[in-house]
């Protein structure tokens, strides 16, 4: 089944109409913008990061650590 230029143009027009219809529905349902909602928010708090333990003798990344139950 071959798609002709006439069919292709008709489908493109139909798709454009559906897209416009969706955009109008979204604009009608939007009561606030993202800037209105987030405009009065303060900056995120800084989280202090501390080094718990330093693993010596490793040249590359340590991907997994298992601690023994008797603290050895």
Automatic annotation (TrEMBL):
InterPro entries hit by this protein: WD40/YVTN_repeat-like_dom_sf
This protein's source sits in the domain of life called Eukaryota
Q: What is this protein called?
A: Guanine nucleotide-binding protein subunit beta-2
What organism does this protein naturally occur in? Trichonephila clavata (Joro spider)
Q: Which gene encodes it?
A: Gbeta76C
